[in-house]
Write a structure and sequence with these properties.
It is a single chain. By secondary structure, this protein is an alpha+beta fold. The protein has two domains: 11-53, no CATH class; 65-130. It contains four helices and three strands, in the order H-H-H-H-E-E-E. The protein has helices at 11-20, 26-32, 43-53, 87-92, and strands at 100-106, 109-115, 121-129. The protein has a three-stranded antiparallel β-sheet, with no helix packed on it. A hairpin with a 5-residue loop joins strand 2 (109-115) and strand 3. Helix 1 (11-20) packs across helix 3. The protein starts with 10 loop residues before the first helix and ends with a strand.
């Protein structure tokens, strides 16, 4: 018979015990892995520890777009020669489909100057450096 752990397991030991107890219900697995107190099973702590043991970081405070990826400040040139600025940036700048920009090339940088509806360059500037 599988004995419950006196202290909550973590890491590889937790994953091994979960594997040994895979035939049991989740509440029983949590108990066997040490995630219980006098009158209750700590399922949330058990799930968090098992996710962490698998190497998956859960940090709800991080800024993420709707697909779960973090915005980065790096882009690369695609095979077709294009550079894509993601929706996270265009939304944070308040840009809309159809907005136009003047492209000004510098030494190892690109300046984008937004064109206002009356045809003048706006003061807003986005810079990409490589």
């Amino acid at each position: 018979m599988i004995e419950p752990s006196p202290t909550p397991l973590t890491g590889k030991a937790l994953l091994q015990k979960i594997k040994e107890c895979s035939h049991l219900a989740k509440r029983e697995q949590a108990k066997m892995c040490g995630y219980f107190s006098k009158n209750r099973v700590n399922l949330v702590e058990f799930y968090e520890a098992s996710v962490a043991a698998r190497g998956i970081a859960l940090d709800p405070e991080q800024a993420r777009d709707r697909r779960g990826r973090e915005p980065t400040h790096r882009v690369s040139v695609h095979k077709n020669g294009q550079i894509v600025i993601g929706a996270t940036y265009t939304q944070s700048m308040g840009l809309n489909p159809g907005d136009e920009f003047l492209i000004k090339l510098g030494y190892k940088h690109i300046h984008l100057h937004q064109i206002s509806p009356n045809g003048h360059s706006d003061s807003r500037e986005t810079e990409t450096k490589e």
